[in-house]
Structure formats: structure tokens, C-alpha cells
């Protein structure tokens, strides 16, 4: 699958090996995970892996050393922040546009838009599944206008798999978030791909 991704011209980036949030690891543990994953991906693909995204957008004020670790491991950029107020992640005061960390690494937050003085997500994932397309499209357009740099959108592979097994032990809230509108996701993504111009994050950040 990794080789197929490269063959089709996509960027290959790292999402970590154990999917443990950065703020639940020590600096040493995080460095080991980052290095292990980067080396594995590069060995399989034969290309440099420049980008990194932390599990659960978990790089923030309580992990000031995370960017130093990513720089030490050889990454050039991170897209590990979602600058909104949320019960699991985010900082509504964090920058919305790409910025350089003290280590020199570039952080590129996923897309948010400011409406009536409040930030809302325009970045995809559960937000995109939950909202009608008539709302998602103008939100992404507004984010692209407000952000200096690329408006970064994401989704998970399981979000286009409505036939996936159903978990029974998760909370009602978690199950609602996870399974909401799975059957509509692929069609909405097709519309999104047609309505906007898309590219690789590394090209958007560093080309030219």
C-alpha cells in the first residue's frame, strides 16, 4: 500500500507508530516512536518522509519539546494542531496559519474559519461527516481566505467504510461520533475533490 501511494504521486508522511498522544509520552518515548516510524516508512518507500501528524492533534503548550524532537528526527514540518476549542484537542488561541517553531520546524495547522468571532473547524474528519455539504463548502472557502498558506483538510480511511465492524463497548458519545454519516462520506468527498484544487502538503509549504 505504501509503495502504491508513492507510485500514484502522493506525499508519504508519518502519523506515528503506536498512535499514542504526544502529551501521554515522555520526550524519550516520543523520540523513539518518531524515529522508528520514519525509518520504517522510508525503508519501505525509498523516499524521504518530511511530514508528521501527532495522534489526536496532541502537540501543544504542554509539549514544548515536541518540535525539537521532530527536528532531531529529521522531519521538516508538522500538521499536528487543530486551533479550536474541543473536548479532546485544540487551542482556540493557537495560530491558524503555518508558523515556525523554535526548532525551525514548520507547523501547519489544519483548516479553521472564524465566524462571528468564534473559530470553527473546516478541516474534515467528524466535522465534515456531521455537517451538510452546503455548510462545509463555504466554511472551507472562508478558511482558505483567512489562512495565510494552505487550507489543510483530512479524513481517515475508515470514514469511507460504512461496512466496518461495530464496537459495542464504546460510550454512546464515542459511537455517535465514530459512525455518524459513514455512508454519506465518500459521496461528499467526491464533491469536495471536484469543487476545490488540491495538492500535497509538502508542495504547498515548500514549493518555490
Describe the structure.
The protein has 8 helices and 6 strands. The longest helix has 19 residues, at 27-45. A hairpin with a 5-residue loop joins strand 3 and strand 4. It is of the alpha/beta class and 208 residues long. The strands form 2 sheets. It has a 4-stranded mixed beta sheet, covered by helices on one side. It has a two-stranded antiparallel sheet with strand order 5-6. The chain starts with a helix and ends with a helix. The radius of gyration is 17 Å and the shape is globular.
Unreliable stretches (pLDDT < 50, length at least 5) are none
Order of strands side by side in the largest beta sheet? 1-2-4-3
User: How many β-strand runs?
Assistant: 6
Mean pLDDT, rounded to whole units?
Answer: 95
Offer a few descriptive terms.
alpha/beta, four-stranded mixed beta sheet, 8% strand
Explain the layout of strands and helices:
Blueprint: H1 2-7, H2 27-45, E1 51-52, H3 66-73, E2 77-78, E3 99-100, E4 106-107, E5 112-115, E6 118-121, H4 125-130, H5 133-146, H6 172-179, H7 182-195, H8 201-206
Helix pairs in contact: 2-3
